[in-house]
Design a protein that fits this description.
single chain, globular, 95 residues, three-stranded antiparallel beta sheet, 18% strand
Length: 95
């Protein structure tokens, strides 16, 4: 991806989620698993209650993606939460 494409993708990410976006984007691993606490440390604020209770908060609904989903979509990843373990598996999108 060239610099213009990278800037365009990053521009969709809200400022509070940019540290998480950068972290996910810069990891070479196909899969990155983060705890909720690690995500909160990256973004500098607690996750909302919905993130801890509703798997749907983490889904990637395409063109109507939520602000948080734009974070991992822009990093070319999907998110799969494990609410009981309080972790999220971010998988690199093939392509």
């Amino acid at each position: 991806m060239d610099d213009a494409q990278t800037r365009a993708r990053t521009s969709t990410v809200r400022p509070e989620y940019r540290p998480l976006h950068k972290y996910l984007r810069d990891r070479f691993a196909q899969t990155v698993v983060l705890t909720f606490t690690q995500i909160e440390d990256l973004i500098g604020t607690p996750l909302p209650d919905a993130a801890r209770a509703q798997a749907a908060w983490w889904t990637n609904p395409g063109t109507d993606a939520s602000p948080q989903a734009q974070t991992w979509i822009a990093a070319e990843r999907t998110a799969e939460p494990n609410l009981l373990a309080r972790t999220v598996r971010f998988e690199r999108v093939a392509g």
